């Protein structure tokens, strides 16, 4: 009982530190990004990237279900069951990733070309952002079984390190585009997709 209390306290501290650090990095990064891109380009990135990234809510639901099934098999000390749940979950997430790709390339392109009111010179940037956001979302969806396995094993220090690293890299990206002289919107989309 004492061991589990220590684990709960340790995980709580890790999650609190992660939340604090990622919040600070996020606030600084957003200020630099908005200042660098301007409201028009940042708005374009948010609208286009938001279309695809709105599917990320699915990640949390799928990670929770993956975690639950893996945790059940771990509790039963059934490693073969853990492997089976992980493999099935990975297959499901690969299919979801394929569906997101098809949706982005059909409906997403149609939406950008026909529904969004954009200046003609921004259409290519919008399609570029759409495709990069779709690839980043697919990478996030496919990584859900791995995240679920980490959570099921209560390895919060690893997940916290990943989130802090992602936030730190976001701050580095914000600094890079702040000092970059070319097409900041495309560079931002490339670097954020690479981080994801």
What brief labels describe this structure?
mainly alpha; 196 residues; 7 helices; 88% helix
Question: Would you give an account of this structure?
Answer:
With 196 residues, this protein is mostly helical. The chain has helices at residues 2-53, 57-75, 79-115, 123-142, 144-152, 156-179, 184-195. The longest helix has 52 residues, at 2-53.
Brief overview:
With 196 residues, the chain is mainly α.
Largest sheet: none
Tally of DSSP β-strands: 0
Share of residues in helices = over 70%
- Strand percent estimate: under 5%
Radius of gyration of CA atoms, rounded to a whole number: 19 Å
Count, helices:
7
Q: Low-confidence stretches at least 5 residues in length (pLDDT < 50)?
A: none
Distance, first to last CA: 38 Å
Order of helices and strands: HHHHHHH
Mean pLDDT across every amino acid position: 85
Give the overall shape. Answer: flat
Q: Provide the structure class.
A: mainly alpha
List the helices and strands and how they pair.
Blueprint: H1 2-53, H2 57-75, H3 79-115, H4 123-142, H5 144-152, H6 156-179, H7 184-195
